[in-house]
Structure formats: C-alpha cells, structure tokens
Amino acid sequence: MDETDGGGAAGRGRAVLIEDGVEFDGRDATLLRAVHEAGSVAGAASELGRSRARALSRIEALEEAFGTLVDRRRGGSGGGGSRLTDDGRALLDRYDRLQAVLAATARVPETVLAGTVKEVDGELAVIDTAVGTVRGLNGETAVGDAVQVRIGADAVTIYERGERVDPDATSARNRLRGEVVGVDAGETVSTVRVAVDGVPFRVLITAESAERLDLGIGDEVAIRWKATATRVVGHATESDP
Amino acid sequence: MDETDGGGAAGRGRAVLIEDGVEFDGRDATLLRAVHEAGSVAGAASELGRSRARALSRIEALEEAFGTLVDRRRGGSGGGGSRLTDDGRALLDRYDRLQAVLAATARVPETVLAGTVKEVDGELAVIDTAVGTVRGLNGETAVGDAVQVRIGADAVTIYERGERVDPDATSARNRLRGEVVGVDAGETVSTVRVAVDGVPFRVLITAESAERLDLGIGDEVAIRWKATATRVVGHATESDP
DNA sequence: CGCGGTTGTATCTATGCCGATACAACGACG
DNA sequence: CGTCGTTGTATCGGCATAGATACAACCGCG
Predict the structure, then answer these.
(1) pLDDT value at position B16?
(2) Which of A237, B9, B98, B199 is most buried per CB count within 10 Å?
(3) Are residues B203 and B140 in the same domain?
C-alpha cells in the first residue's frame, strides 16, 4: 500500500543543505525545531535526549557556515534562552520544503524502459526502446550506451483518442497509444496502468481527471509526457561480465 | 551558476532504499558498482581504499535484507571472484534512477508563497496567498495554519494571453496572469521570471517553448500549474515566540 | 544580594564504525 | 599436487562522534 512500485524496497530521499562543506541535515532540522519550541538550547537538548554541550557546539559549527541561526542570550529572567533568528527560520523552512518535495518525489511510481542511446543533443537524448523512440534528459550517457529510461507517473498525461492536444505541445514531448489494463482509484489521485505494446506504463491522474475520462479496462487511450520529466540513466552493467 | 535559487545554500537530495530496517545508500551503491567493475570484492575494496573484510560483511548485511546481491565464489581460476546477481543489478539500477531523480528535483528552482490554509479536502488544500487562492497537496497542515506554498519551476507552464487552454485542464489547476520581468536563456531550458502582483514566479521552459513564445521583458503572460505539483508545507514557526 | 536557569567551555568516557591484520578454506589450472 | 588469488572469519586498534560531567560566566528578578 505504501509501496511505490515493483521495486520491492521502499525508496526515500533525504534533504541536505550544503554551505562551505558543512551539511545541514534532518538531525539539524529537528534540533532547530526543538530550540524554537523549547525556547532554549538546553531545553531542546533534554527534550531530544541529546547532549546539551554537543547541541551547542553543533549550532556553532552550523553558524560558522550558514550565518547566525540562533539568538542565544544568557542571564536574565529564566536564566536566559535562545530563539531562532530570521535566517534560522528561513533555513529551516527551506529544508522543510526540500524534504517535502524529495519525499513526494521518492513516492511517485515510475515506469522504466530499457533502451539504447540513439542521439544526444546537449542535455536532451533520443532513446530507442521497445515502444519506439523517446526523448529524455540525459545524464552522462553517450550514443550507443544501454540505458534505462525513467518516467515519473505524475508527469504523464492521459487523454482519449481524438481529443485535441494542448497548444503548448512541442516536439520535445513523447506520445504513445495504449490500452488501459488497470485502474487503482484513490481518494485524490488514481494510478492507471496503460499497456503500450505490452509494456505497462504507470500514470497518476487526479480524481477530477479520472471522473472526466471515466476510464475502464480495455479502453484505448493515448498518453503524453514531457521530455524534461524523463530521465535517462546509465545502466549499472554496461561493460564486461 | 550552480545555485538553484535565492536560498543561498546548495540543496541536495540523497537516495536511500530501505528494507527490513537496512538502508542501501550511496556508499553501498558505489561498492556494488566497484564489485561489478573489478569482478571481485577484494579488488573493489582495494580500488575504493576500503577494508575488504568490512566490504564483505557489509554485503552480507545487505543481503540479509535485500536478498542475494552478489554471486561470490572462492577457489578456481584466478582464485575465484564475485559478480552481481540479477537482483543486485536491479537494485543498483533502481538506486541510480532514484538518485538521478532526486538530484534533478533538488536542482529545480522554486517559488515560495506565504499563506494561510483556507480549506482542506483530503490531500488537497486551498491556500490564501498574496496572489489569490491556490491549490496544493497538503502535508500535515490544518485550516488556519500559516504555511508556505512551494511551486516547482518545472511544473509551471507559461502561455500568452488569449491562447487556448489545453483540454485536460481541470479545476485542480492554478492560473495566474503576470508580467515577464526576466529571462535567463539556457542551452536546453530557460528560466523565466514572471511577476504576479509583484510576486516573482520562476518558470522553467524548454528551448523550443522559449522560441515559440519569444518572450521579452514586459510581456503580459499567463502561467498555469497543476495542484499536484504544489506542496503545502507547514511553517517552522507557528506557535509562541 | 543571592537565586535560578541558561549560555559558554573544557574534559573524560562510551560507543560504533572502519581499517588493518592474520589465518583457514577453497578450487581451477598448470 | 602445489600455486595463487579469492572468499570466509575472527580479532585488534584507531578515529570520529556523541553523551556525561563539571565549572565558570551571565543577568533579570524577587
């Protein structure tokens, strides 16, 4: 249910912000969040079950690279305390955005095509696959290489045959015709499986699109996706056996 | 040049495959790749400057969770050797795909809107922002929360006013009108900055679309993006100061 | 003026991971 | 039948990180 595809293992993404070689990761994010909630580094450390001295030195190390993140003051009412600076909040917000997007990306089902590079034009590559030639963004592959073409299910649009194509369609898009072989209706999004020459494509559509298209198994449909949402990844095993 | 946006620090994503609590990360991927290239675990370890015994025990630990990954045999011509199994190659391929997609995602410029949650319907949320109400995928936020709305520049489509909208448009899309305030032409993709009520949106378009639209600063355009490509992320600082 | 809880700072210790090393088992090949 | 380079397996030591502890400095407040 929580699985993304037939890959078996669960795939995840972890966000990292890097500045001057210092990495701001999830552990740092929870630390800053705890400081914000507790109002002090000491309180945050004890809340997290971490060493206060370590937490403090970690914050100092981060600040050396990212600038002032925590406004710390000692003495005064309550003995002092610490609050996030505007920069600290901004950094934390940015981390949260990145982490949210990466987590969402890692969850997206994918369809994978095996192919060979036919042509490379800058970042764009043309790949020969079982369903014809497709275009995608290249990643360090050269003409003739055996590659895998990765298409995110959220980038694919499904439409019924005869339907007019949108005006911003460019030659950099991929189009194929196929047959619906499965519909997994969800609350807000549905996963549709479309077979193209026997190759199953996963397509993510919104509930509204699902209602509009009213897809059923056996329906003939066309699918379309942007080349920029297609990644060409070199095969792990190219050379000698 | 390599920067993604005004966030300052470089954002990255690291892929991880998880099974039974065991994490397959980039270090493991390079190990498997080296084993494939060297034809032996010993050769791979020395190539990477890592301990052979550690590499071996790491592979065993991985195999306990992911299944047989490396076909190891001792004795024989050359003293033996190791090769990746089909499962091993498949796992490595999957890791490479995920890493490629996450890296690409982390590079995408973003536009961020501050807003408050107006309505939540399942996974979809309606947010009040400076440019009006927008829809996006919710992530653990509730009505009334102060949130940040994150829109990936690659998900935004730009089109000239009066142009017909595509047929798969649903009410789950967001539309706005604005003015072009900057064009950063690239080789295969260009980054366009569109101001909507003074709020700058970053839009990524292909070179072909750039040519077709022939955008110049001051042009009045409309932008559109799918709600499913919009993430609603809770603000770090909601509660007391 | 002392109290209290926090920030600074230094140091010791535990822990876990990794490299290094050593040695046995293995089996095709000359 | 010995050689050779590999896979198994066990153990030791180093190193980096984090927790634990201790103590000084700070300062609003009662």
Answers:
(1) 98
(2) B98
(3) yes
Partners of residue B18 on adjacent β-strands: A10, B23
Query: In which residue are the tokens 């993404």 written?
Result: A13
Residue in A81, A90, A95 with CA at minimum distance from that of residue A29: A95
- Tell me the two tokens of residue B24: 């397959």
A106/A98 Cα distance (integer angstroms)? 12
Q: Which domain holds residue B66?
A: 17-106
* CB-strand contact B21/C, under 7 Å: no
- Specify whether A132 is located in the same domain as A181: yes
Sign of the dihedral defined by the CA atoms of residues B150, B152, B155, B157, in that order: positive
Residue the block writes with tokens 């290239």: B37
- Rounded-to-integer distance, Cα B238 and Cα B147, Å: 9
**Among A19, A16, A39, A20, which residue's Cα sits nearest to residue A29?**
A16
Of B10, B168, B206, the CB nearest to A172: B206
Residue B4 within a domain:
no
Q: Look up the CATH number of the domain holding residue B42.
A: 1.10.10.10
Q: How many CA atoms are closer than 13 Å to the CA of B53, on its beta-carbon side?
A: 0
3-state secondary structure of B206: strand
- CATH for B191: 2.40.50.100
User: For residues A123 and B188, is the Cβ–Cβ distance under 8 A?
Assistant: yes
Q: For residue range B20-52, what is the model confidence (pLDDT) as tens digits?
A: 999 999 999 999 999 999 999 999 999 999 999
Q: Which residue from B90, B100, B163 is facing A231, i.e. has the nearest CB?
A: B100
Name the nearest CA neighbour of A174 among A216, A127, A120, A212: A127
Straight-line distance from CA A6 to C1' D16, in Å?
A: 39
**Angle at which helices A41-48 and A26-38 pack, to 10 degrees?**
120
Q: Are residues A123 and A217 in the same domain?
A: yes
Q: Is B208 exposed, middle or buried (0-12, 13-18, 19+ CB in 10 A)?
A: middle
How confident is the model over B48-68, as pLDDT tens digits? 999 999 999 999 999 999 999
Q: Work out the end-to-end distance of chain B between its first and last CA atoms, rounded to an integer number of angstroms.
A: 37
For residue B36, list chain A residues with Cβ-Cβ distance below 8 A: 236-237
